[in-house]
Recover the amino acids of this structure.
């Protein structure tokens, strides 16, 4: 309804401008035929101009700026699929009421339109017709006659056509028929059924009626007594029974008709008013239809030639994700996008190699091996995402995946992913996830890459709006230009190995307040989300030092990926190490957030380890089908509506602890949507069965679990 309302406003503005011009320069002028077609054209132009969109492209050279390194979001792909609880509102919204009233008003006007046609049809059936030169005469004494409609003249038997007066009236009605005025009336009345709220269309209808009379009066008094014809109109006492689609002779008001009859018929008329309509129409058309659209040009990188391996995800027997209607596959869509990226590359210093150019199957290992053989500088794999049927219309958007921090290309991949996200965030018609994503289970082609590597999930193939956009040429070109721009920006940053580029990117690295550490080794500052903590030669990985009061005579600091630290403390030291020697812990209260996730790491409280990252996440017994059945049985979909929640999508995140034996505890909602949704989700977890516990190093362990439950309140 909102889009239609904007369209109505544009139509009103356009018709108002055109009618205002008519009122000031054309009204009551004797060039009636011109005015008639001007008013009809005004209606057509007002209806069509807002619908036409003509894009005028111009080059907008992308300016080089520092790449903002974005915080990585870790996603657990061990989560059970989100269960989407959909509730429909029974009450009408303001928008629905407005739409209904508008529709009802249009129905009223349509009913009147049909009733008038039926009345005319009744007159035709009830009275005799005579055909003369393709004109059908209907003799009647009905109120409102004589009048004409299409090729019919409904003649009043009380008027003698043989008299001078009768002859003039006949010529008047014949003019209406011959000049097809009824079609104008049918057109404008049909338009008013749908656009009855436009006051200018009603004024145009009134003016058209007058112009029809002017034209017919002019023909009726040719070679006749004008004064007698005018007197006849004034003295007419026939009842006014007017059909809106007809041309009745005794049309009121008559003042303007008499004025037109007495005007000089041969003046040296000014044509300026008519000529000026041309620039007005052009300006109005341009104002409503022409839109400027910048073309993103990226060719600002000039330097060492770089190679980019561009992979089209899946292929051959591997269809990838499939649209809900089964007609579109991920393998075809990703290949089309990859080809578009390569075809639009016009930078000779960037060599793009497609992993496949046809519909062939390649296993992940084969894709990774192909990438290694090319010795590329960058690797990009194009994909589209998918979700379950119950959340198909809910999940939407693009995201960029990178390898986990365990792998050597993680940091450079984050920077490249940030460059891609920065480009897409301004002109992509699908929501863009503003952070790179690391999947806990990892992705083979990313982890095995010898260079910065990303997977671009361009949208959700299961979402109708996403997939409709992704199939368009506009979407493919937007993706291609954004990817190419990101490649060039990243290449520029890498080519500038000087401190300027390094500082520009490092300054934007965000530090997590809850788990990030910034430390200094005397030469350089380091940032790490999870450094290894060593207290008196005892290793632990702790999410925060906030629960410790440590007195230490000496603190050693090792930065991320320090070879000496890794050799001394093992692979856990790759994210940096804080070493407290000769330390005493004056206070330590174990926190639920204190986590160990490396093979040899442990929590200081002995056997009571609490994990948030594990090899195998806790699971609901019976898997997704049992989980779905449990929620559908125990959650009331209409709860948010009952509590007054507005339309929207509410993703409730419930966090809880699953012990070694599967017992649930410490259940709480991390979200605060209100309307009873958060508390309902917590309660449904609390009263559920024991879960299958998490597994680490082959043993059942106590671990935290975050489970999303999404409520959708729709119309």
């Amino acid at each position: 309804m909102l889009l239609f309302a904007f369209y109505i406003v544009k139509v009103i503005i356009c018709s108002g401008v055109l009618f205002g011009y008519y009122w000031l320069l054309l009204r009551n002028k004797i060039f009636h035929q011109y005015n008639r077609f001007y008013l009809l054209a005004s209606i057509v132009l007002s209806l069509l101009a807002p619908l036409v969109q003509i894009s005028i492209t111009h080059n907008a050279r992308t300016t080089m700026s520092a790449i903002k390194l974005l915080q990585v979001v870790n996603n657990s792909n061990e989560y059970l699929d989100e269960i989407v609880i959909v509730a429909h509102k029974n009450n009408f919204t303001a928008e629905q009421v407005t739409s209904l009233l508008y529709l009802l008003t249009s129905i009223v006007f349509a009913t009147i339109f049909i009733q008038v046609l039926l009345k005319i049809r009744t007159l035709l059936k009830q009275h005799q017709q005579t055909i003369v030169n393709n004109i059908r005469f209907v003799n009647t004494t009905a109120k409102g006659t004589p009048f004409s409609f299409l090729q019919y003249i409904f003649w009043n038997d009380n008027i003698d056509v043989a008299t001078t007066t009768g002859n003039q009236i006949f010529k008047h009605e014949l003019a209406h028929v011959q000049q097809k005025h009824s079609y104008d009336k049918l057109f404008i009345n049909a338009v008013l059924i749908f656009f009855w709220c436009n006051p200018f269309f009603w004024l145009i209808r009134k003016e058209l009626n007058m112009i029809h009379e002017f034209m017919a009066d002019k023909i009726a008094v040719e070679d006749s007594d004008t004064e007698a014809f005018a007197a006849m109109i004034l003295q007419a006492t026939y009842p006014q029974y007017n059909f809106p689609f007809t041309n009745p002779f005794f049309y009121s008001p008559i003042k303007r008709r008499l004025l037109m009859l007495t005007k000089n018929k041969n003046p040296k008329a000014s044509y300026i008013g008519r000529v000026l309509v041309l620039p007005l129409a052009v300006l109005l058309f341009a104002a409503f239809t022409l839109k400027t659209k910048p073309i993103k040009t990226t060719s600002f990188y000039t330097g060492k030639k770089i190679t980019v391996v561009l992979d089209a995800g899946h292929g051959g027997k591997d269809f990838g994700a499939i649209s809900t209607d089964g007609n579109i596959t991920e393998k075809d869509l990703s290949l089309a996008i990859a080809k578009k990226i390569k075809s639009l590359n016009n930078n000779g210093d960037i060599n793009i190699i497609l992993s496949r150019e046809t519909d062939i199957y390649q296993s992940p290992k084969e894709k990774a091996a192909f990438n290694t053989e090319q010795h590329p500088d960058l690797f990009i794999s194009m994909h589209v995402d998918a979700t379950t049927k119950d959340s198909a219309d809910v999940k939407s958007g693009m995201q960029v995946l990178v390898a986990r921090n365990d792998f050597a290309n993680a940091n450079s991949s984050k920077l490249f992913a940030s460059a891609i996200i920065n480009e897409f965030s301004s002109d992509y018609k699908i929501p863009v996830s503003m952070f790179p994503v690391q999947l806990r289970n990892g992705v083979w082609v990313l982890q095995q890459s010898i260079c910065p590597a990303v997977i671009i999930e361009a949208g959700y193939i299961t979402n109708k709006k996403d997939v409709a956009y992704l199939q368009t040429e506009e979407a493919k070109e937007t993706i291609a230009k954004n990817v190419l721009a990101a490649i060039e920006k990243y290449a520029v940053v890498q080519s500038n190995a000087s401190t300027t580029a390094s500082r520009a990117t490092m300054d934007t690295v965000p530090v997590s307040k809850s788990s990030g550490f910034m430390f200094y080794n005397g030469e350089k500052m380091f940032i790490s989300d999870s450094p290894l903590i060593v207290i008196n030669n005892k290793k632990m990985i702790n999410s925060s030092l906030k629960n410790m009061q440590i007195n230490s005579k000496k603190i050693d600091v090792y930065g991320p990926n320090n070879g000496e630290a890794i050799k001394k403390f093992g692979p856990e030291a790759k994210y940096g190490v804080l070493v407290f020697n000769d330390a005493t812990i004056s206070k330590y209260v174990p926190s639920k957030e204190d986590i160990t996730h490396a093979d040899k790491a442990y929590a200081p409280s002995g056997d009571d380890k609490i994990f948030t990252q594990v090899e195998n996440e806790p699971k609901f017994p019976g898997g997704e089908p049992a989980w779905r059945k449990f929620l559908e049985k125990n959650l009331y979909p209409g709860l948010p509506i009952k509590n007054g929640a507005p339309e929207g999508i509410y993703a409730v995140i419930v966090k809880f602890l699953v012990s070694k034996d599967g017992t649930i505890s410490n259940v709480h909602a991390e979200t605060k949507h209100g309307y009873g949704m958060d508390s309902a989700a917590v309660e449904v977890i609390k009263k559920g069965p024991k879960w299958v516990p998490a597994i680490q190093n082959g043993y059942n362990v106590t671990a935290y679990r975050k489970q999303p439950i999404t409520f959708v309140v729709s119309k």
In short: The chain has four domains: 1-52+98-296, 298-505, 517-604, 623-714. The radius of gyration is 39 Å.
